[in-house]
């Protein structure tokens, strides 16, 4: 037990410690409603003092907003690892990555997209809106249209991100669609949008 505790409390670099706390918070907010999670719980399971959670994230609400942001944003590394192939290959890869992430963190992702008991909160809504916009730009970059996209193009792609979220919810939450069906719907739709709908200027 002493050895386990010492491992949990081992000295980490600030970025690594922050990521450790965030990882624990993702698990907590994904498994319980917002009101039932405390920063004390998060600190205990992360093996740190509660003050350190406050130092990195501020209030419990700030910590929750960080969880929502990371659950809804496509990381830079995912875009960098896309294949150099043609449009169908790149679309297949980005859709596959998205479905891998939401299935691996399904409870946390569903809580984030459903506001996890914080529906209607202005700050949560703002973070979700910002994350959707960032995701839209990431999708545009993945299909080779990410260089200074116009407001119209960004709006169209935000609509696609909304489709992706709703479709994944049909799969993970309602069990109506299979992963294969979701992948086909999202990939086919994105290719059609790029080739037939998205403005090129």
From TrEMBL:
Give the domain of life: Bacteria
What InterPro entries would the database entry show?
DesT_TetR_C, Homeodomain-like_sf, HTH-type_TetR-like_transc_reg, HTH_TetR
- Pfam families (alphabetical): TetR_C_46 (PF21943), TetR_N (PF00440)
HTH tetR-type domain: residues covered: 15-75
Q: Does the keyword Calcium apply?
A: no
* GO MF term list: DNA-binding transcription factor activity; transcription cis-regulatory region binding
Residues the UniProt record assigns to the DNA-binding region sit at: 38-57
Q: What is the annotated signal peptide range for this record?
A: none
* UniProt keywords, alphabetically: DNA-binding, Transcription, Transcription regulation
Q: Which SUPFAM superfamilies match?
A: Homeodomain-like (SSF46689)
Asked if DNA-binding is a keyword of the record, the answer is yes
Q: Which PANTHER family match?
A: HTH-TYPE TRANSCRIPTIONAL REGULATOR BETI (PTHR30055:SF234), HTH-TYPE TRANSCRIPTIONAL REGULATOR RUTR (PTHR30055)
Q: What is this protein called?
A: AcrR family transcriptional regulator
């Amino acid at each position: 037990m002493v050895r386990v505790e010492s491992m949990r409390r081992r000295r980490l670099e600030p970025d690594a410690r922050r990521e450790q706390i965030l990882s624990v918070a993702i698990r907590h907010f994904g498994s319980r409603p917002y009101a039932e999670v405390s920063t004390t719980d998060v600190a205990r399971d992360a093996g740190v003092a509660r003050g350190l959670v406050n130092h990195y994230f501020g209030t419990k609400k700030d910590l929750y907003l960080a969880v929502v942001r990371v659950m809804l944003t496509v990381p830079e590394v995912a875009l960098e690892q896309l294949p150099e192939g043609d449009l169908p290959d790149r679309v297949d890869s980005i859709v596959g990555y998205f479905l891998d992430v939401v299935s691996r963190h399904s409870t946390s992702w569903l809580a984030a997209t459903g506001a996890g008991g914080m529906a209607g909160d202005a700050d949560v809504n703002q973070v979700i809106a910002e994350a959707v916009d960032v995701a839209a730009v990431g999708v545009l970059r993945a299909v080779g249209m990410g260089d200074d996209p116009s407001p119209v193009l960004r709006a169209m792609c935000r609509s696609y991100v909304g489709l992706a979220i709703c479709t994944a919810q049909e799969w993970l939450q309602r069990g109506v669609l299979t992963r294969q069906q979701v992948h086909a719907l999202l990939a086919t739709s994105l290719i059609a949008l790029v080739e037939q709908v998205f403005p090129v200027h």
